[in-house]
Amino acid sequence: MSTSFSFRTMAIGLLLVALIVAGRLAFHFHSNAVKAGEQVKQQEKTLAQQQSLITALRENAARNSSLMAEQQRREQQLRQQGETYQRKLRDALKGSKCGNSPMPAAVVELLQQNAAGTAANRPATP
Predict the structure, then answer these.
(1) What are the tens digits of pLDDT across the range 77-102?
(2) Domains in the chain: boundaries
(3) Burial tier of 96 (Cβ tally within 10 Å: 0-12, 13-18, 19+)
């Protein structure tokens, strides 16, 4: 009977060792699963922040695009107004002796100073 006792003791010992190893493995995998869960939560939080940032950037890009289109429209309108003014001025001065003669340098300087002063005092239009 000593062999069966020793076999039984050995089987119980092996079973205990197997249970201890299984417990350690379960604890190890459980802690890894907890860490992985925390990482997933952190990544979800980061993803949500990035998505809100992307949304804000897209909104800003759309707003900038519409502002640029409006600015281009205004610039085009100003160019057309300037061209129309120049054409009307040329037509008005076409047959005029005064319109076809050069201005004195002093008059040109005064006009340039006046234009520079007016531009500096004029409020910027959006």
Answers:
(1) 999 999 999 998 888 888 877 777 88
(2) 2-92
(3) exposed
